[in-house]
Design goal:
alpha/beta, 8-stranded mixed β-sheet, two-stranded antiparallel ribbon, 10 strands
């Protein structure tokens, strides 16, 4: 069965964005450190690079290695939409969970107005060798926590103080086991955790 993996950047205090959805405060390190980090992460997960910048990263024709589907909340989708990009991951099947977004945003994007758990369960039953990427956000992760099989956490050395939490839901302690951890010279740590 396919897996749902939550691949996301997070601050030391567990925020995936600031109170207004800001994410430009995550420290990247110097140019050499940033290049090494990006090269490593894009080699593992090339499909997580938005379509508009794939060519700049040398990924214009890179095949999807891990995911063929992306699932986002409106807060994760909104920055692309505000920039005039209605299909940010055109190389993936795209689902946006939103009760306020109209269904005709883009023919390549499926708007899901309710019941994301049913959607994920149906996607997991599909016959595919690739998994489903939960791109964000925190409230959607809170709803989907029972179906999240793996966490791919990029932990940045910064404290936000306030903002959108990694998982925003009901109190539901869920144990994950660290499968691997990689530290980078720019201070970022990528940890892969699997549901126990």
């Amino acid at each position: 069965m396919r897996k749902l993996a939550y691949y996301v950047a997070v601050t030391l205090d567990g925020r995936i964005a600031g109170p207004g959805g800001e994410y430009d405060f995550f420290p990247a390190g110097d140019e050499q450190q940033t290049a090494a980090y990006q090269s490593w992460t894009t080699s593992l997960y090339p499909e997580t690079v938005p379509t508009a910048v794939r060519a700049a990263f040398g990924l214009a024709h890179a095949p999807n290695r891990r995911f063929d589907t992306v699932l986002m909340g409106l807060g994760s989708y909104r920055p692309a939409l505000d920039a005039g990009i209605s299909s940010p991951y055109a190389h993936l099947r795209q689902y946006v969970v939103s009760s306020s977004l109209g269904p005709a945003v883009d023919p390549a994007v499926t708007v899901v107005p309710s019941d994301p758990l049913a959607l994920v369960r149906a996607l997991k039953r599909e016959d595919s060798d690739l998994d489903i990427w939960l791109c964000g956000g925190g409230r959607l992760a809170g709803v989907l926590l029972p179906e999240i099989d793996e966490l791919l956490i990029k932990s940045y050395p910064v404290v936000a103080g306030a903002g959108i939490p990694l998982v925003d839901g009901a109190f539901d302690p869920t144990v994950f086991t660290v499968a691997e951890r990689t530290a980078f010279p720019n201070g970022v740590t990528l940890t892969r955790l699997i549901r126990r």
